[in-house]
Structure formats: structure tokens, C-alpha cells
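WARN retry 2 of 3 for item q-0093 after timeout on previous attempt; input resubmitted unchanged.
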Amino acid sequence: MTIVAALFVRQDSIYKTMPGVDAWDAERDALRWPGGAPVIAHPPCRAWGGLRHFAKPRPGEKALALWAVEQVRRYGGVLEHPAASRLWPEAGLPEPGAGYDAHGGWTLAIDQDWFGHKAEKRTKLYIVGVSPRELPPIPLRLEEPTHVVSPWRGLRAGMPGYRPQLRTPEREHTPPDLAVWLLEVASRCRVMERAA
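OK item q-0093 returned
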């Protein structure tokens, strides 16, 4: 079994219960990860996302995503970030459908509700080491999600189209089906370690 490193996971992350996963949360400090395995990277996104102007990231937090990109490029794997993340232009990552970059990486756009998230959570995945046709099957759910990540302006409980907002932990948790799928993607990566 290929061991996969899950970097920047929550303290209560599903990855900590999965065989074959070496999980790194804030306490363990992903920056101390020694390398040598494919990765699933979930770097903090608040400094990069669509609401970044309201964010209050810790000093150095924004740089963690750039470091995570380097690890995915060096060891193979997948990096997950919100669809509106400014990480893509900053790090020179290809947009979905734009083909491969110089590191053999490409981007897939998904909605996390396909994998059981309660809300539609549009997400980009930067993948290095496996081609699109080598991915495990991607589920597709067309039913309306039961919740929203951010409140819809003007809609209140009882109004048509209203859906409740998720609490922060629910927004941040990786759905179990997505964690299993990302683990399978990273396990299929064939990238040899590259010089940093």
C-alpha cells in the first residue's frame, strides 16, 4: 500500500482514521513533513479565497499554500482549494481545461456536494502524477444541496429557495467520500522526487 501524506488537515480530520494516510495537522506542523510520498494538501485558504479581504490570517499562513504547491510538484498528489482561490494565478497553476503545466500538473474543478458535502462547494484540484483518464470514477449528484456555505442575500427562513448556512466545522470538513477519492488519486501518482 502506498503511504500518502495528508498535509494541513483539521485536528479532527477524517484522514486521521484512514489506513495508508500520514496526517499532518497544525499541532504536528506540516512544514516539518520530511517528504518522500505523494500528498493530499489542504492548505489554509482564507488568505486566498473570495472573501480574503475580510480574512485575518496568521503571519506566514498565506505562504503555506505556495509551499504545498511545491510539495505536490515534487512528490505528486493533489492540492485542494476553493474555486475562487487566487493561488492559481499567483503560483502559475493551469486553470481547468488549460492542459498541463511545466511540472505535469493540471487542474480539475469539482463540486464537493457530488461527494456528500451538504452544500455546493466549488473546488479546484491541482493534480500532479496522474492523468485525467487515470482518475478513479467521479460521482455526479444533480440534486439540490440542503445547505449553503455562505448566506444568500435577502433570503430568510421560510422564503422560497432558502437553505441554512453551514457552521464553520461543517464547511471545513472534507466529506468522507471525497477523502477516499483524493486518497485514491494520490495513491495512483507516479512522480519521482524532483529537486527542489
